[in-house]
Specification:
The structure is a homodimer.
Chain A lengths: L25 H9 L8 H8 L1 H10 L7 E4 L2 H11 L3 E5 L9 E4 L5 H7 L7 E5 L3 E11 L5 E3 L3 E6 L2 E7 L5 H16 L5 E10 L4 E7 L9 H4 L4 H9 L13 E8 L4 H16 L4 E5 L10 E9 L2 H12 L14 E5 L5 H13 L4 E5 L6 H10 L7 E7 L4 H8 L4 E6 L7 H8 L8 E2 L5 H12 L4 H28 L1 H5 L2
Parallel strand pairs in A: 14-15, 14-16, 16-17, 17-18
Antiparallel strand pairs in A: 1-4, 2-3, 2-4, 5-6, 5-7, 5-9, 7-8, 8-11, 9-10, 11-13, 12-13
Helix pairs in contact in A: 1-2, 2-3, 11-15, 12-13
């Protein structure tokens, strides 16, 4: 029997059918597919994904790493699972589970029965998972074209509150190796499914660096909301491109960092709305924040009412801004302007030289900080300064030192940021000792060395580096070069007009 | 008499009233304002702007530079204006003029009469403008809050086809000084008006660097369409924030460059649609392009049917991609991956050293080019390479040279990009001559110098610099440092286990 409305979905009337949530009647989808309706992703994929147990079976058959799991049909089965996997034991509903619904934890054999009851009993279809000792939860949005070519979005970290996605950090603050491993698992997981579209792959990162699959959603996902502002192609446009058979867009980030904060209902009814609106007010004061309010008619505790995305030049910067947004009493917010350049020197005796770098940065309106950090006298300060600089939003470090000038090279060894070294002329050797100590770095750790005592050039070099991502700075640098040329031309003209003798003795 | 519907706009039912086009009945707006409806911008502003002659009078009273103009009421007046301003003479309708409608050019006194007729005769209200000998048309989107604080978007260049906006380049490829001047004029023009909202200020740049006001629109504008993808806050969101009394968002660019292309009707009816859809197909193949199709029911020649915005890391890059998109026969598009690093050297004898920089860039998957450019033997090549590198999308230059090593410094003098210098050991002095020739640059022109023969470090330094805008690269650099550490630790362990003697004689 064909449902009357399904005739309206014949190939000539419906170009393609996709889903925005996997909890749909998959039998109908399959019937439509048989009638020639183009479903993307395929009904087979929806069938696998909407049953979490089936999903685990599928992925384990495709050699995707995931926590151990087993089906349970009665309390005896649950106990056997507890003996096998230990406690805490995660018990899950096979179907209609999302945003933490359908999960229950039993901390001991005594809690098994109540956990099963909380999930509606064995008739609902339950299975257990071995507790994954994760240190972080990661996620990857994967886009798959009709021709099966695949593009992956950057790996993000997801932070949950009572099992509900609350904060997403993009990109995840994990090593390159972990990112690659997470992307590989996500790629393989989606490769094992059928059909085009955007898929969200949720992952566990364990303490020993393993990546385990948690679950897959066959659609745009909360972990990809940040892509609207932070990526060249949002997950929503990408999903439509994929299912419609259009070429995929670039999934990479156009902003170095983004943080997404879900506005979850704090309270029922009116008071919940008041709290949410206070939060939105504060979010609107952050210049690089975007507010999304879903305009749901009813406020409930823990309900997703909207979200805020803040983009910026480093995770440290956007985290600071989120922190300020969440302070209820805060009336002022850290500006988007955190220091971008750190000027450090081994001793205050270097300051008369190093001040020239600060002067240049002032001229170009680049925010900076100035600090004394000695490699030899305050090695711990140097260590913590260099290794935390990137997290704090510093983008270039200018380090000045004299004599056995170790500061620039040591700092370069402790940070992935570019380090500019200024050889300061010390008492002996006219600065050649400083220069060679700074420039002759071993393979692997570069220091961008400028001329002896020439902190002006260090400032200018920092501006040129920052110009890589800021065309305004690049244009200002061109203007600076033009102005310098005009200064010299003026002098040349004066010399021409006055003659060399009166030029020297005015 | 109060129109019956206007009662529905009383203060309690309508928070704020704004306009999306200035050609509205301003008398009604004024009446609503008197009744307490909050109009943003103010009716007074709409009244000034919708009459182009009144607009000119207003801005000239506020000392905003603009082309000379005068009202004309009959042919005699037009002739007097022609005598005064010369030909070609621009004749304009005072009202209902946009997208080139309402403009006519008289190239001589004989053409005056037909130009006036083309505009519907003197009864429509006409004025003339002295021809502005512009070299570029610029525009600035200006956002003004209710408290009169003002934020300006980056200056863009607009390119018109038959008086209709066709291409917008953001930011405009003009000097920093010109950008500042244009922003100043736009700021002053909007300051002279009343009410909140987004305003588009269209400007002429003349050959001698003057900025003249063309006209102002009191609303989001075609010259700001690119902001949807390229700026932290789009002009549309900004307008709503401004009129609703919310804090303004950041108007700066989150992508270094953007180009917007209006899809104008090429032909009436079906064949016009076919051409437009072919263009869209090609646009969709460009990974960082976004297509906006307005779904207007009718296709007409020169009608704005949609637009495409391409963002990228330099104007050169997005211009190349637009060019490819416009080639009808093109089947492949320049990828978003143009070389980001230029590796140049004075002689092929430097290649055995310089290859190490290329190896590092390969390892980090950074696109690069390798060229021989000699300061002394091919000064013209050096000059053109260095001065065009930025336009071509190069972001960092690595230059190697030996002996009297002038290449890095000379290139640095000709580009605003960061230049990394590699001193190559020549036959004499063990490379100290090369090192000092490269590092001891005068104030004003920095070269980031690395150790003698150490092109590996030059490659690593380039990666660190590019990491300023690419967190992936930064993470890979951290991983590289981690891997290097592990290599050394392995050697240390082997030495520990084997003892130093068997370590040396395995």
């Amino acid at each position: 029997m064909t449902a009357p409305w399904s005739r309206n979905l014949q190939r000539d009337r419906c170009g393609v059918l996709t889903v925005e949530i996997e909890h749909v009647d998959v039998a109908t989808l399959e019937m439509l597919e048989q009638q020639g309706v183009d479903c993307q992703p395929k009904a087979s994929t929806i069938r696998i994904i909407q049953d979490k147990y089936l999903q685990k079976v599928h992925f384990s058959q495709h050699a995707i790493p995931l926590p151990e799991f087993m089906q349970i049909e009665d309390l005896e089965g649950a106990k056997r699972a507890g003996d096998l996997f230990g406690y805490p034991l995660m018990i899950k509903s096979k179907r209609l589970a999302y945003d933490g619904r359908g999960n229950a934890v039993a901390n001991s054999v005594e809690e098994l029965s109540s956990a099963v009851t909380a999930l509606g009993g064995f008739d609902r279809g339950l299975y257990v998972e071995k507790w994954a000792p994760f240190v972080k939860e990661l996620a990857v949005i994967v886009a798959r074209e009709r021709d099966d070519s695949i593009l992956c979005y950057p790996v993000v970290e997801t932070i949950h509150r009572e099992n509900i996605c609350h904060i997403v950090k993009a990109p995840a603050n994990v090593t390159w190796e972990i990112r690659n491993r997470a992307t590989d698992v996500a790629y393989k997981a989606v490769s094992s499914l059928e059909g085009a579209g955007v898929f969200a792959v949720e992952l566990f990162l364990t303490g020993d660096g393993q990546i385990l699959l948690n679950e897959v959603a066959p659609r745009p996902h909360n972990s990809g909301h940040h892509t609207i502002e932070s990526c060249y192609t949002s997950q929503y446009e990408q999903h439509l491109r994929a299912v419609a058979g259009l070429p995929l867009g670039d999934p990479s980030m156009k902003s170095p960092a983004a943080i997404m904060y879900n506005i979850l209902g704090e309270d029922e009814g009116e008071s919940g709305f008041v709290l949410a609106h206070q939060l939105i007010r504060r979010a609107l004061s952050i210049p690089r924040a975007t507010v999304h309010w879903y305009d749901k008619p009813e406020m409930r505790k823990q309900r997703k009412m909207g979200h805020v995305t803040i983009v910026g030049s480093s995770l440290g910067e956007v985290e600071e801004q989120l922190k300020a947004m969440l302070k209820e009493e805060s009336s002022s917010y850290p500006s988007a302007v955190t220091p971008h350049v750190g000027i450090i020197m081994g001793s205050d005796s270097d300051l008369p030289v190093m001040k020239d770098a600060a002067r240049i940065l002032d001229m170009f309106a680049v925010p900076y900080e100035v600090k004394i950090v000695s490699a030899h006298r305050t090695p711990e300060v140097m260590f913590s300064y260099a290794s935390s600089a990137w997290q704090r939003g510093i983008q270039v470090i200018i380090a000045g030192a004299g004599g056995a000038a170790h500061l620039p090279g040591m700092v370069a060894a402790l940070t992935p940021l570019p380090v500019i070294g200024v050889p300061v002329r010390a008492s002996a050797l006219d600065g050649l000792d400083s220069l060679l100590s700074i420039v002759q770095m071993p393979r692997g750790v570069p220091v961008a060395t400028v001329a002896i005592n020439n902190a002006t050039n260090a400032g200018l070099l920092a501006v040129r580096m920052l110009g890589i991502k800021d065309v305004d700075l690049l244009a200002r640098m061109s203007q600076y070069q033009e102005d310098t040329k005009n200064d010299v031309l003026k002098k040349a003209e004066k010399l021409e007009n006055d003659g060399w003798e009166s030029y020297l003795n005015p």
